[in-house]
Amino acid sequence: MSPRTSPGTSTGAGGRAEQLPAVTLEDVRAADALLDGVVRRTPLEPSAALSELLGGPVLLKCENLQHAGSFKIRGAYTRMSRLSQAERERGVVAASAGNHAQGVALAARLLGIRSTIWMPVGAPIPKVEATRRYGAEVHQAGTTVDEALVHALAHERETGAVLIHPFDHADIVAGQGTVGLELLEQAPDVRTVVVCTGGGGLVAGIATAVKALAPHVRVVAAQAEGAAAWPASLDAGEPRALARMATMADGIAVGRPGDVPFGLVRELVDDVVTVAEESLSRALLMLLERSKLVVEPAGAAAAAALLEAPEAFEPPVAVVLSGGNVDPLLLMRVIRHGMAAAGRYLGCRVRVPDRPGALSGVLAVLAEADANVLEVFHTRTTAALAVDEVEIGLQLETKGHDHATAVLAALAASGVRPVA
C-alpha cells in the first residue's frame, strides 16, 4: 500500500485540493481523557480457538461489550461534547444502520442534547428500538447508510441540527482511536492488530494511536467482500463509491470511505483484506461457541480474516470485535449458515424401495454413523422415481466435513442409492 503523498489533503469536486483536519496521537489522548468515566474499558480476552489456528496468542478486544453494544459511543461522545452551547440547542442528527445510531442517541442523552436519527429501511428492529429507547427521534429512509445519510443532510439544512457523521470527522476518528490506546496498554507485546472496516473511522483512529506508539505493529483492515469500497479507493488514490453492496454485515456496509479516514488509512494501515460471507458466518459461530461472545457479523469481520488466512497474521494478534448488536432472527440464520459452512449441517436425498422398514433402515445407518437427524421428508410422485421407489430428503447435523463424508459413505455402503 503506497503512503499518501499529501498528508491531510484530499481532492474535492473539480480536482480542488481540500485541507482536511489532521488526527494525531495527542488528539486520541485528549479524547481518552474526555471519555474517562463515560465509556467502558473493554476487556481483552484470549481466544483459544484462534490461538490454536495461528500457533500463537490471539486476543479479542471486546467492544461488543461496550455501552450501547459497540465502539461507536467513543466517537459520538467525543464529537458531541465539543459542541458549543448554541449548537447543542439546535440538536444533532445522524444516519446509521444501528450502532452509530445507538452511540449518538446515548451520548445525546448523557449530554442533554436532542437527537434525530435516520436509519435505512430494513435496519434490524432491535437496533431501531434500542435507538428509540435511548431517547432519539428515529426516521427510516433508503436501503443503505449512504441513502439514509442523504436524508440526514437534508434534515441538517432544514433545521440547523448538527450532523454527527458516523466516521468522517476528526473528533469521531480520535474518539474511536481510544480503542487502540487501551489495546496497547493491555497487550504491549502485540505484533498485529486486525480491525473490521466500513467507512474507516475505527481503523483510522486505532492506526493513529498504534503507529505513533508502536510503529512496528502491523495494522490490518478487514472488509466484507460484498461491501469492499477500500481496495478500489486505495488503488484510485481517492475515495470511490461502490455501485452496489450485498452483505449480512450491515454495520460495515458503507459504499464510500470517508475523506478524513482515507488519508490516515492510506498512510498508516499496512493492508486491507476482504472476507467472504461464509467466513463471517463461521467467525460469528466460533465466537459464540468457543468464546461465549455474541458478536454481529460486522464485528466478526476481523476474526473472519484470521479464519481465511491464518498464516498471514503474526502473533500475538489483537482482533477488534467492534459490536454485538445483532438481530436475533439474523443470528439464527447466520448460525445455521455458519454451521453449514463448517460442515455441521448435511442435506442429502436418497432413494429406497417403497416398502415398510425402508426408512427405519436408513435411520439405523445414520444412528450407527452418529449423525443427528433434524428433518425427514418423503417424495413419491415425481416422474423420475420408479413405481416402487420413494425419495427421502434428509437434513442432518454432523461434526464437520470429514464426518459428513463418512456419513455419506456409510449410506452408500448400506446399499442406499444417493440422488445427485
From TrEMBL:
Protein keywords: Lyase, Pyridoxal phosphate
- Residues forming the ACT domain are 347-420
Under Gene3D superfamilies, the record lists: 3.40.50.1100
Q: Please, which domain of life does this record's source organism belong to?
A: Bacteria
EC number assigned by the record: 4.3.1.19
Per its record, what are the GO molecular function terms?
Answer: L-serine ammonia-lyase activity; threonine deaminase activity
Could you tell me which InterPro entries the record lists for this protein? Answer: ACT-like_dom_sf, ACT_dom, ACT_ThrD-II-like, Ser/Thr_Dehydratase, Thr_deHydtase_catblc, TrpB-like_PALP, TrpB-like_PALP_sf
Q: What class of enzyme is it?
A: lyase
Q: Where is this region: Disordered?
A: 1-21
Please give a single GO biological process term from the UniProt record.
Answer: L-threonine catabolic process
- List the catalysed reactions: L-threonine = 2-oxobutanoate + NH4(+)
Which residue intervals are annotated with compositional bias (Polar residues) in the record? 1-10
- Cofactor(s), names only, from the UniProt record: pyridoxal 5'-phosphate
Q: Per the similarity annotation, which family is this?
A: Belongs to the serine/threonine dehydratase family.
Q: What is this protein's function per UniProt?
A: Catalyzes the anaerobic formation of alpha-ketobutyrate and ammonia from threonine in a two-step reaction. The first step involved a dehydration of threonine and a production of enamine intermediates (aminocrotonate), which tautomerizes to its imine form (iminobutyrate). Both intermediates are unstable and short-lived. The second step is the nonenzymatic hydrolysis of the enamine/imine intermediates to form 2-ketobutyrate and free ammonia. In the low water environment of the cell, the second step is accelerated by RidA.
Name of protein: threonine ammonia-lyase
Specify the species: Pseudokineococcus marinus
Organismal lineage: Bacteria, Bacillati, Actinomycetota, Actinomycetes, Kineosporiales
